[in-house]
Amino acid sequence: MVRVVHTDAGHRGTVSNNAHIDIYPDGGSKAPSCLTKCIPYIYDLIPWDDCNHSRVEYLTSIDYQKFGVCQPVAYECENYASFLRGKCGNYENNSFQSYAFDFQLSSLLPVPVTEDVSKKNRQFYVKTSAEAPFCVHHYQIRLKSREHLVCNSLRISLLSKNYRVSVKVAKTDQTSMTALLTLDWKTLNNPVRFVSAIISNCASNCSNQIDLVLVDYMSNINKGSANTSHFEIIDKYLN
User: Fold this and answer.
1) pTM of the prediction?
2) Could you give the CA distance from residue 201 to residue 121 in angstroms, rounded to a whole number?
3) CB 3.0 to 4.6 Å from 76: which of 51, 96, 100, 158, for a disulfide?
4) Most confident segment among 17-31, 80-94, 134-148, 199-213
C-alpha cells in the first residue's frame, strides 16, 4: 500500500495521483499557513514553494491523541471542488475515508479504513488549519426534499446550545443540496452537536421544500468517540 501526501502540487511536487491513495491537504497546495508568506503576484517565488513543500513535515509529526477527538480524516472525492461542496462524506459507509497522515500517528489509534491494494489512483481530500495541530472540524451538511427543488442554493443557520453558524448549501441533484462546513480547532476545542436548523422563508423560493437536514461529523474515524455525534439528524422546521 503506497500513500502520497501532496502539499506542493504543481510546484516542486506533482499533481498526479500515482499511488494507491493520494492525499491532498487543502487541495494539495496553498496551505493556510503559507498564504501570507508572499504577496499574491509573486506567490511562485521560492519562499512560497518552501513553505508548501515543507508543510508535510509538520502535518505528519503531530500526535493527534493529544488533541481530543479532532482527527485529520481525509475523504475520497473526484476533485477538491466537489469536496468543498460537501459532496463526499462517510454517511453511506466508511470505505471512502482514511487517516490523512496515518503513517505518523500513534500506534494506539485505529488502522486506516482503506487497505485495498487492488485499487489505485484514489484521491482523498482534507482541510487543515494554519497552526498546530492543524485540525479542522469537518461537517457534511445535506438537505433533502421529496419534491424537485426550484432553486440552486440557499443559506441555512445551524444551532447548538451555545453556537450558531450560517452555511450556504448548493443543489447537487433534483432533490438534494450539500455543503461542507469547517470550523477551526482554535474556535471550537470539541465538535459542536447541532440540534436545530433555521431556513428563512425569504431565503429562496425552495425554503419550504426542505424536508430534512442532516449533519455528519467527519473528523473522527472512531464512531464511538466521546463528545461526537457521527450521524446527526436535525428535524425540520424551519421558518
Assistant:
1) 0.79
2) 44
3) 96
4) 134-148
